[in-house]
């Protein structure tokens, strides 16, 4: 079963109708509901808070200008998620930060000696490990594991092949295991 996206928010038809009619209050409500999921997705893909904030703004502007193109038939959140993914990937390409292969060097993560609750410490460690990965690898891992995209869908989004997605996922997973000091499962 694919993971449930943080975008999986049901938007009432009445709210969409008001947004299509240009009602500012409807756009503000949609913005409030989706600001955090768009920011999180953009941060995971771009690896930079400022870039992620820009992706939120670009995504919401595109939503504002193209809301009339959403015809239904699929969830609104899926349509908006697709806009956000495209905006984040376009920003990476535009900034030439789109590394196409994972670097196989073994840089250590910066140490943080603050005391956090175990779950928060694990989340912070995972965030630092993800940020140590090249943008393309981090994007594949996030799109596959967190957003539930298939390798074929990732390949289309990134204008690559499914084998590229699969190899980046495998290499990125190995690199994350190393950075997080998780032992590889043995194949007996």
TrEMBL record:
Pfam families referenced in this protein's UniProt entry, alphabetically: Sigma70_r2, Sigma70_r4_2
Domain RNA polymerase sigma factor 70 region 4 type residue range list: 125-176
Q: Which family does it belong to?
A: Belongs to the sigma-70 factor family. ECF subfamily.
Highest taxon in the source lineage: Bacteria
> Can you name the source organism?
Pseudoxanthomonas indica
Keyword Transcription regulation set for record: yes
Tell me the keywords, alphabetical order. Answer: Sigma factor, Transcription, Transcription regulation
Which positions are tagged coiled coil?
none
- The RNA polymerase sigma-70 region domain covers 32-97
Q: What is this protein called?
A: RNA polymerase sigma-70 factor, ECF subfamily
GO terms classed as biological process: DNA-templated transcription initiation
């Amino acid at each position: 079963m694919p993971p449930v996206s943080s975008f999986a928010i049901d938007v009432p038809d009445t709210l969409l109708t008001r947004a299509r009619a240009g009602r500012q209050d409807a756009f503000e409500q949609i913005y409030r509901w989706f600001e955090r999921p768009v920011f999180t997705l953009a941060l995971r893909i771009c690896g930079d808070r400022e870039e992620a904030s820009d992706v939120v703004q670009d995504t919401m502007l595109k939503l504002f200008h193209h809301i009339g193109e959403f015809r239904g038939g699929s969830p609104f959140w899926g349509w908006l998620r697709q806009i956000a993914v495209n905006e984040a990937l376009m920003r990476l390409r535009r900034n030439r930060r789109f590394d196409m292969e994972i670097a196989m060097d073994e840089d250590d993560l910066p140490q943080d000696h603050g005391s956090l609750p175990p779950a928060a410490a694990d989340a912070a460690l995972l965030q630092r490990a993800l940020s140590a990965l090249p943008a393309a690898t981090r994007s594949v891992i996030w799109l596959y594991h967190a957003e539930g995209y298939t390798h074929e869908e990732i390949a289309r989004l990134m204008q690559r092949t499914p084998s590229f997605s699969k190899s980046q996922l495998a290499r990125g997973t190995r690199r994350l295991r190393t950075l997080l000091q998780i032992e590889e499962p043995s194949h007996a």
